[in-house]
Amino acid sequence: MRISRERIFYLADLIVKELGATPGVQVRAPDELRPEVVRALTEEAKLADSIDGEVRKILASYARPLPEGSREWEILYQKTREEVFRRRFRL
């Protein structure tokens, strides 16, 4: 799932605000924290897109193509996504 740049900025703002409002957490430089949160969210989004692309490529290579969005496709997508994730992170 693609996540827009605007959405990443919005989420980063929410995270920084929530951290600032959390008891026991002191954010001394929110202007320095926000770019780091944006960077982390961007890297996660790229990783998710990469995994999604690999899963779709695997599913497209099956001899019997499944209609995307069908119940069977969704089940195979989730199982394949979990396998790719485990393989990449050796879980």
Please describe what this structure looks like.
With 91 residues, the chain is mostly helical. It has one domain (5-89). It contains 3 helices and no strands. The chain has helices at residues 5-21, 30-60, 71-89. The radius of gyration is 18 Å and the shape is elongated. 2% of the residues are buried.
Feature tags:
91 residues, mainly alpha
Topology:
Blueprint: H1 5-21, H2 30-60, H3 71-89
Helix pairs in contact: 1-2, 2-3
Summary of the model, kept short:
With 91 residues, the protein is mainly α. It is 74% helix and 0% strand.
Specify the helix fraction band.
over 70%
- Total tally of structural domains: 1
Low-confidence segments, given as residue ranges, are none
Mean pLDDT: 91
Q: How would you describe the shape? A: elongated
**First CA to last CA: what distance?**
23 Å
What's the multimeric state?
A: single chain
Please state the structural category: mainly alpha
What is Rg?
18 Å
**What are the secondary-structure elements, in order, as H or E?**
HHH
